[in-house]
Structure to design on (390 residues):
């Protein structure tokens, strides 16, 4: 059995970054920017008032000074003249500051009668002017790769970039296997259960930027599995769930081999997730996940998510971990790296008491995986351990 680290290296070796596609900005949230983009304009494009008030000359500002209001500048409508000594222009937030003005007095500090204003006594140093290009200037870049968050979308819009180059979404075909499975909403027979992993995994992968597609459930026959693989053809990644172990009905490895899969590895020294396999099948990456629900979803976090990030040009890195103190004492770990369902409470981590890999309630109640190294000795409460946030 190989280690988690070795398995991840083998998986990264299967990965190539996705092609680039150009999409409308409105559709780009959560996508990964694939090429640097350049601001098409400066923001603000002119010196702009940051307040509602009066534009005038700083040199003329003093308590009780009087000015004649000669015009108005509003957002979208500049004052076309040049401001002269003793003059003020009524100005509103976002409006271009008139030529000749270099100061905006807020209206609260002014008394107005007809066309005349008188300044008050408490005017500060702040000019209330946003300089041209104060946010960004023409030619400034937003660097790729970058997972686009709402603020990035707003920035690209302000830069007048309506079409964005992003990495194409990896298409991931997910195949559930097993005679015992029916889809949610169907009527299970007495020996059947509902396929759940596929739904959880698809949700996990969609959230990372994949286009996850659920294939029909493959039954425990060679013909049915072959048919499922056929339907999955053309996907960037094919993930099977279940049928990965050593039982008589575990057909994924033999059927994939029959289809010409070149296997990178089978079995990883981890808990849960041991019977993991991966390789290349035609043009697709093939990953065989174990059937136990928690095993499949933990493998999703530990292996599939980093692969997807790499496919989306975000680099080859393991799932991010951080160190936190243990809330309780823990016995020594066994020979497999253990990804324990756990809860972070007030900055300390508590492993769930039940760690069986079939327990979805425990996984759903967890907010972290507590990672224990293979053969790690017993630890006392307060020891620092590593967690992966869920
Ligand atoms: N003799 C041995 N038996 C087992 C070993 C072993 O080393 N020697 N490994 C165990 C481990 S660890 C795991 S994990 C499981 C993995 O088995 P498979 O990948 O072959 O999965 P199945 O047997 O098909 O299913 C296991 C379990 O999960 C349920 N399942 C499967 N698919 C789904 C799904 N889409 N949604 C919900 N539940 C699913 C299935 O009904 C089984 O209960 O093997 C151990 N055995
Ligand atoms: O490794 Mo299995 O993945 O214990 O549940």
């Amino acid at each position: 059995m190989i280690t988690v680290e070795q398995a991840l290296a083998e998986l990264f070796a299967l990965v190539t970054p996705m092609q680039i596609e150009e999409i409308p900005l409105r559709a780009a949230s959560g996508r990964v920017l694939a090429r640097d983009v350049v601001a098409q304009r400066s923001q603000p494009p002119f010196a702009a008032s940051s307040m509602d008030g009066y534009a005038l000359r700083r040199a003329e500002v003093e308590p009780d000074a009087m000015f004649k209001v000669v015009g108005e500048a509003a957002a979208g409508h500049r004052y076309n003249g040049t401001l002269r000594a003793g003059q003020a222009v009524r100005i509103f937030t976002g409006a271009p500051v008139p030529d000749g003005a270099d100061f905006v007095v807020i209206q609260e500090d002014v008394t107005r009668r007809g066309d005349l204003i008188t300044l008050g006594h408490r005017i500060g140093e702040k000019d209330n002017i946003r300089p041209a290009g104060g946010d960004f200037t023409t030619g400034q870049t937003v660097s790729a790769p970058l997972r686009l968050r709402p603020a990035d979308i707003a920035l690209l819009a302000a830069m007048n970039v309506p079409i964005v180059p992003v990495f194409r979404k990896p298409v991931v075909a997910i195949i559930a296997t097993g005679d015992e499975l029916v889809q949610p909403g169907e009527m299970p027979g007495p020996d059947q259960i509902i396929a759940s992993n596929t739904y959880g995994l698809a949700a996990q992968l969609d959230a990372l930027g994949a286009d996850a597609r659920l294939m029909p459930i493959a039954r425990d026959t060679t013909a049915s599995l072959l048919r499922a693989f056929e339907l999955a053809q053309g996907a960037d990644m094919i993930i099977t769930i279940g049928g990965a172990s050593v039982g008589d009905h575990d057909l994924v490895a033999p059927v994939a081999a029959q289809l010409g899969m070149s296997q990178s590895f089978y079995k990883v020294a981890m808990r849960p997730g041991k019977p993991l396999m991966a390789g290349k099948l035609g043009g697709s990456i093939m990953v065989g996940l174990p059937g136990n629900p928690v095993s499949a979803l933990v493998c999703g976090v530990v292996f599939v998510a980093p692969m997807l990030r790499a496919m989306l040009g975000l680099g080859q890195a393991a799932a991010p971990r951080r160190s936190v103190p243990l809330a309780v004492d823990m016995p020594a770990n066994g020979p497999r790296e253990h990804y324990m369902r756990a809860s972070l409470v007030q900055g300390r981590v508590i492993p769930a008491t039940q760690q069986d890999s079939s327990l979805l309630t425990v996984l759903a109640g967890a907010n972290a995986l507590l990672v224990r190294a293979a053969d790690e000795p017993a630890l006392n409460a307060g020891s620092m351990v590593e967690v992966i946030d869920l």
About this structure: The chain has a mean pLDDT of 96. The longest strand covers residues 337-345. The pocket of molybdate ion (ligand 2) is lined by residues 271-274, 290, 292, 295, 357 (CB under 6 Å).
